[in-house]
Design brief:
There is one protein chain. The chain contains five helices and two strands; from the N terminus they run H-H-H-E-H-E-H. By secondary structure, the chain is of the alpha+beta class. The chain has a two-stranded parallel sheet. Helix 4 links the parallel strand 1 and strand 2. The protein is globular and about 35 Å long.
Amino acid sequence: MLNPTDQAVDSFYNSLLANHPTQQFDVIREGRAPHVFDFAPYELILWHHEVLYPTVIDQSQSELQAYLDAGGKVILSGMNFLDHLNADFAATFLGFGNPLLNSSADFLG
């Protein structure tokens, strides 16, 4: 499935995490990017986005930084996150600088 729907991706993560307590914040349903108060109750955030919908991580970068500074953990799952994060954030919180973005296909055939 090269272009999964929002519902298909949500279903994938729901089944993947079925045996773990979770709560979902859906930016499409909420109509806004998450705030630091949305992150605060959680030790770990799994931030994912679909191919067809752009991420809003750039709108929550300072909130995400505050969450991480306070000891929170995050897993980013999806494409093009690096296009939306500034280099200082990537270096400080992801451990690298100057990422090389390759938009060519990974697989052929």
